[in-house]
Amino acid sequence: MKCVICKHGETRPGRATLTFTRDGTTLVVKGVPADICANCGEEYVDEATTARLLRYEG
Ligand SMILES: [Zn+2]
């Protein structure tokens, strides 16, 4: 899809690193499937993936 941030790049499937802050703890999740803009590097993680990560307790 076309990147909505820079409006020039096309996104490509890749892996992102997400950071969540929860209950005062910072959780870093690496290797999350995402679409990444080839131009500006914006990461698009789908909502289902994000929701699953936010529910993760471990
Ligand atoms: Zn972009």
Describe the model:
Helix content is 16%, strand content 47%. The N and C termini lie far apart (33 Å). It has one helix spanning 47-55; strands at residues 11-22, 25-37, 43-44. Strands 1-2-3 form a 3-stranded antiparallel sheet, covered by helices on one side.
Largest sheet: 3 strands, antiparallel
The number of helices is 1
Oligomer: single chain
Return the average pLDDT rounded to an integer: 90
**Ligands present:** zinc ion
The level-1 CATH class: Alpha Beta
Please indicate the percent range of residues in DSSP E strands (runs of 2 or more).
Answer: over 45%
Strand order of the largest sheet: 1-2-3
What Rg, in angstroms, do the CA atoms define? Answer: 13 Å
Number of strands: 3
Domain count: the total is 1
As residue ranges, the low-confidence spans are none
The termini sit apart by 33 Å
In which range does the helix fraction lie? Answer: 10-25%
Helix and strand composition category: alpha+beta
User: What's the CATH architecture name?
Assistant: Roll
